[in-house]
Amino acid sequence: DVKVTQSSRYLVKRTGEKVFLECVQDMDHENMFWYRQDPGLGLRLIYFSYDVKMKEKGDIPEGYSVSREKKERFSLILESASTNQTSMYLCASSSNLSNQPQHFGDGTRLSIL
Amino acid sequence: KQEVTQIPAALSVPEGENLVLNCSFTDSAIYNLQWFRQDPGKGLTSLLLIQSSQREQTSGRLNASLDKSSGRSTLYIAASQPGDSATYLCAAPAHGGADGLTFGKGTHLIIQP
After folding, report:
1. What residue in A sits closest to B48 (Cα-Cα)?
2. Under an 8 Å CB criterion, which residues of B touch A?
């Protein structure tokens, strides 16, 4: 069974802090993704990665960066946290096969005070 | 840019009814289309994935269809149960290929016992 693990379920940080959200998958998937989910706006893609050290911007990359040093780990970085980055963050992974779905972690609910 | 719309936004029906959830997308050059379920405060669970060459997929009481030419997909739930209560999300690849997903805002489903 595919397991996508996000390091924290809940996180509280202060404005201006540098915040790291970690995600690990155990299925040797090539692709990894970060989304945020907000009421009324739904899920939106922040960044994704096809391979180690590769990254692509999604729809809302501003204020975020990512790191993928190992295949199984994909980190989302908030360079200088702001209150408008309070949200639910969801990580996902997938293989390159067209008949395989994305698998999601349980999410990190991040509050920026 | 892919846009995904789901109707209705919310639905409440008595237990035992058959029901249909609708999804439309603007870019028909899609790789596949996915349906997910989300329980409150949780991540997403993959329900069905339909590849671009397929017309439908079935899993238990769930059946999803895909009509690429008209940009539509439906999720049919047979003999609904209270445990089916959740938010159902439709998602299509943002740029057609194996990249991040664009999500609809979901249908919030309540099955009354």
Report:
1. A101
2. 31-32, 34, 36, 41-46, 49, 51-52, 89, 91, 94, 98-106
CA A79 – CA B1 distance, rounded (Å): 27
Query: CB B50: neighbour CB atoms within 10 A?
Result: 20
Q: Is the dihedral of CA B28, B29, B34, B40 positive or negative?
A: negative
Q: Which residue of B has its CA nearest to A46?
A: B100
pLDDT tens for residues A15-44?
999 999 999 999 999 999 999 999 999 999
* Cα distance between residue A3 and residue A10, in whole Å: 19
* Residue pLDDT, tens place only, B37-74: 999 988 999 999 999 899 999 999 999 999 999 999 99
- Where does residue A80 rank: exposed (0-12), middle (13-18), buried (19+ CB within 10 A)? exposed
C-alpha to C-alpha distance for A48 and B99, rounded to whole angstroms: 8
Are the C-beta atoms of B5 and B107 separated by less than 8 Å? no
